[in-house]
């Protein structure tokens, strides 16, 4: 190993969460190094949020246009798949991270390419692709932001069948004729929407009772109905027993429990995520390798004063925007601790506490229809012991929705805490519903009283009138 190079902060992992830690600590005047073994920008930029939304945007725009009188006939044909892929490739930088590196250098961060491992107290050892070795020493903090990778279940024949994960599903350059998708959560639902529209015959195989299990049940039901109408097959309550591929490029055969077989040209396993912590030196600081890294609300690892973990790796909320939020919290904590700011404001909704991870977590799913939610579902609120009431309304009966699209189908729900008369959760499902989400997030995070929400007047005629309808329903 070379002689240690000292920085105030060392960040292990260069995805959005790691980059945001760099941004905050550099803005506070701290010297910061970032270590990344793949592309700087991480999973979100190259194989998740950005490419998936680039694939889905034309799909949803066409679906919306087909519901508008006078426009439907103009978009009757198939999507231009090559143009869609080219647009996706542009937004991923053609899987090059030059722009991300330029930005990091512009803010004065030092970037080390290679595999990084914790190397005892406040140290990170880096092995570059060329075999060079560096030791980085942190005066104040090391932040782990190594993210997650797709889970490949231990099924007979699966590894040899070379299944797609979310990486292949978002970066493929051609639509497979027949695409089998195993899973029912966000990746499965979004990729089924995208590839069905791009020309694949999609079959979704869901172990559970429906899609999008972490949202209100009606969200998954509406998305599944729309997928079926688009031509996809959605099967619930089924489990895969084994997988085989015919040769190196032949079809994939899936055997379900009970013996039924299905054949496809590609198989996407969308069955969850696992932390990238198996070889990052956790054992050198007394932590078990390979698992999620537990943190407190300031994203600091309990019992290790200098170690933080942000983003997917801490398992608080596997969403890019929440990882960036955690990074802003952790960056502020580190900077203020260095500056000697005491005590830290780490109470509920304090400047140094990631309270939104548990109480106002927003998520948007870009299916057709879109599904968007924040906070608790009705079932979650009841399990937590709140005295609640769910208020539902048909989103399609709002005048703005009817003008947005003929035959608009959707649903909205707000979960009201009856003791405090605030919202604990809100869910919208319908075309364009994701753009309603931030207003709901403000209402939940701000604990805005129902009586005050009554004075937040939605513009006419917009889909946001759903707020008025929900409040009218609640007030009776």
Structure in words:
Helix 7 links the parallel strand 8 (178-182) and strand 9. The chain has 476 residues and is α/β, with parallel strands linked by helices. 31% of the residues lie in helices and 24% in strands. The chain is globular. Strands 1, 2, 3, 4, 5, 6 and 16 form a seven-stranded mixed sheet that branches. A five-stranded antiparallel sheet has the order 17-18-21-20-19, sandwiched between helices. The N and C termini lie far apart (71 Å). The protein folds into three domains: 5-41 and 97-149 and 275-356, 3-Layer(bba) Sandwich (FAD/NAD(P)-binding domain); 159-271, FAD/NAD(P)-binding domain, CATH 3.50.50.60; 369-475, Enolase-like, domain 1 (2-Layer Sandwich), CATH 3.30.390.30. Helix 1 packs parallel to helix 9 (320-339).
Features:
five-stranded antiparallel β-sheet; alpha/beta; 31% helix; 24% strand; Enolase-like, domain 1; FAD/NAD(P)-binding domain; seven-stranded mixed β-sheet; 21 strands; 476 residues
Low-confidence stretches: none
Specify Rg, calculated over alpha carbons: 24 Å
Query: In CATH's first tier, which class of the largest domain applies?
Result: Alpha Beta
How many distinct beta strands?
Answer: 21
- Under the CATH scheme, the architecture of the largest domain is 3-Layer(bba) Sandwich
Gross morphology: globular
Beta-strand residue percentage: 15-25%
Separation of the first and last Cα atoms: 71 Å
Mean pLDDT: 96
Oligomer: single chain
CATH topology of the largest domain: FAD/NAD(P)-binding domain
């Amino acid at each position: 190993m070379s002689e240690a190079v000292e920085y105030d902060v060392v960040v292990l992992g260069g995805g959005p969460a790691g980059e945001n830690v760099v941004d905050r600590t550099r803005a506070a005047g701290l010297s910061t190094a970032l270590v990344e073994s793949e592309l700087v920008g991480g999973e979100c930029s190259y194989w998740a949020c950005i490419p998936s939304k680039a694939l889905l945007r034309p799909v949803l725009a066409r679906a919306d246009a087909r519901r508008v009188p006078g426009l439907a006939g103009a978009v009757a044909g198939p999507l231009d798949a090559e143009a869609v892929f080219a647009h996706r490739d542009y937004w991923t930088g053609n899987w090059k991270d030059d722009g991300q590196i330029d930005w990091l250098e512009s803010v004065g961060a030092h970037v080390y390419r290679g595999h990084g491992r914790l190397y005892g107290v406040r140290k990170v050892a880096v092995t570059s692709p060329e075999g060079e070795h560096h030791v980085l020493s942190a005066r104040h903090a090391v932040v782990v932001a190594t993210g997650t990778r797709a889970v490949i279940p231990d099924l007979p024949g699966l590894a040899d069948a070379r299944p797609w994960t979310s990486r292949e599903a978002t970066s493929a350059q051609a639509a497979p004729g027949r695409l089998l998708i195993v899973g029912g959560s966000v990746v499965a639902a979004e990729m089924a929407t995208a590839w069905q529209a791009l020309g694949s015959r999609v079959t979704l195989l869901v172990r559970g009772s429906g899609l999008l299990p972490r949202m209100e049940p009606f969200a998954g039901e509406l998305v599944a109905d729309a997928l079926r109408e688009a031509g996809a097959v959605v099967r619930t309550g089924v489990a895969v027993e084994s997988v085989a591929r015919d040769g190196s490029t032949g079809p994939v055969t899936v055997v379900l429990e009970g013996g039924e077989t299905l054949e496809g040209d590609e198989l996407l396993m969308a069955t969850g995520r696992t932390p990238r912590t198996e070889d990052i030196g956790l054992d050198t600081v007394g932590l078990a390798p390979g698992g999620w890294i537990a943190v407190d609300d300031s994203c600091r690892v309990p019992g290790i004063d200098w170690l933080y973990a942000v983003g997917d790796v801490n398992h608080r909320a596997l969403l890019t925007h929440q990882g960036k939020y955690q990074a802003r919290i952790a960056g502020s904590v580190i900077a203020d601790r260095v500056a000697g700011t005491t005590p830290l404001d780490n109470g509920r909704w304090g400047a140094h506490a990631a309270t939104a991870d548990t109480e106002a977590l927003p998520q948007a799913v870009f299916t057709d229809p879109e599904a968007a939610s924040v906070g608790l579902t009705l079932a979650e609120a009841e399990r937590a012991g709140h005295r609640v009431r769910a208020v539902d309304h048909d989103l399609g009966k709002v005048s703005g929705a009817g003008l947005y699209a003929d035959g608009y189908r959707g649903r909205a729900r707000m979960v009201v805490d009856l003791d405090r008369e605030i919202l604990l959760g809100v869910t919208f499902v319908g075309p364009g519903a994701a753009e309603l989400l931030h207003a709901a997030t403000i209402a939940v995070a701000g604990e805005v009283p129902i009586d005050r929400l009554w004075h937040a007047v939605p513009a006419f005629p917009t889909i946001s009138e759903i707020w008025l309808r929900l409040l009218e329903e609640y007030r009776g």
